[in-house]
Design goal:
With 328 residues, this protein is an alpha/beta fold. It has a domain of 134 residues: Trna Endonuclease, Chain: A, domain 1 (3-Layer(aba) Sandwich), CATH 3.40.1350. 71% of the residues lie in helices and 12% in strands. The protein is built from seven helices and eight strands. Strands 1-2-3-5-7-8 form a six-stranded mixed β-sheet. It has a two-stranded parallel sheet with strand order 4-6. β7 and β8 form a beta hairpin. α1 runs antiparallel to α2 and α4 runs antiparallel to α5. The longest helix is centred in the middle third of the chain and has 148 residues. It is rod-shaped.
């Protein structure tokens, strides 16, 4: 817009200069035409000269203005050049941006394809999981059925175990009863190394034997009841000195420490009740190692599978009962 104004102003100046020139030509012609008007013309020329001077000054100012406008135009063109370079750089950046956007669009396309593949894989996984869940449910149902069957089996085993325990107890009682009667019936043979003239006391005879001691306070009634329950009580002559003596024996298929303690306790009751020598013994086919030690410490004789052992003797390994292994 500044350039257009400068051009318009220059055009007006030119027109003005042309007008001045025309006026001068007319004045020259008028000078030649009339000398009478010379003075006026001189005056007019002077005025015109002054006007011309003023015009030249204005033209000078206009030229300075045009120079400044040209410089401004130069600066504008330089700025436009810089703007064009900036626009070029922006265009290049836009091109790179479009290339990147295209690459991103392609990457997005690949991502969507991968997502689709993943979605399909997820679908297959979910179907597989559903199949596994159904199989798990079937397995759990089978496990539940097995657990119920196991429960029934355990209940049946518990019943069978109870029955077996009762049978074991009954068998043990039967075995003990058989052994007790065997040793009682064959007492002269089994205890011949300890007594002579052996007589087996019945439980009724034991009760009568101990009754006076209860009355005298030598033993208690509870001790009497305990002693009456002893497996074997014999009377005879002690071989060592032919003194009247009693033999109190606890019979068991496998002699335990409890049997040894019971024989020692009950023999003591009989000794206090009768005042006679009492031989305490444990009897059976075998004896546990701890029971053998307890018997020797308590001064008990051991009659094992027909072998008579004094309290100071160790039981041979062949007469020791095997230790029971803990249940797994």
């Amino acid at each position: 817009m500044t350039t257009a104004m400068s051009k318009s102003s220059t055009s007006r100046n030119r027109r003005r200069v042309s007008t001045v020139q025309v006026a001068l030509e007319r004045l020259a012609d008028a000078q030649e035409a009339t000398q009478a008007e010379l003075h006026d013309l001189v005056t007019q020329v002077r005025h015109l000269t002054e006007a011309q001077q003023r015009t030249e000054e204005r033209v000078g100012r206009l030229e300075a203005t045009v120079e400044r406008l040209a410089e401004a135009q130069q600066r504008t063109e330089e700025r436009v050049g810089r703007l064009e370079a900036t626009v070029e750089r922006l265009a290049e950046a836009q091109r790179r941006t479009e290339e990147r956007l295209e690459a991103l669009a392609q990457a997005q396309q690949r991502t969507e394809e991968r997502l689709e593949a993943l979605a399909q894989a997820q679908q297959r996984t979910e179907e597989r999981l559903e199949e596994l869940a159904q199989a798990q449910r079937r397995t759990e149902e089978r496990l539940e059925a097995l657990a119920q069957a196991q429960q029934r089996t355990e209940e049946h085993l518990a019943v069978m175990t109870t029955r077996m325990n009762r049978m074991d107890g009954q068998l043990g009682n039967l075995t003990g009863w058989v052994l007790e009667h065997r040793y009682r019936d064959r007492a002269p043979a089994y205890f011949d190394d300890l007594l002579s003239g052996i007589r087996v006391l019945s439980h009724q005879e034991i009760a009568l034997l101990l009754e006076p001691a209860v009355a005298s306070g030598a033993i208690t009634r509870a001790e009497r009841r305990d002693a009456i329950d002893e497996d074997i009580v014999l009377h005879g002559k002690r071989l060592a000195d032919s003194a009247d003596a009693y033999l109190v024996a606890e019979v068991s298929a496998s002699v335990s420490a409890v049997d040894a303690e019971r024989a020692a306790r009950r023999s003591g009751v009989v000794a206090r009740a009768t005042g006679a020598p009492v031989i305490a013994a444990v009897v059976g086919p075998r004896i546990h190692p701890d029971a053998d030690l307890a018997a020797r410490k308590a001064g008990l004789w051991r009659v094992l599978d027909g072998t008579t052992l004094a309290p100071t003797e160790l039981a041979p390994a062949g007469l020791l009962a095997a230790e029971e292994q803990p249940a797994v």
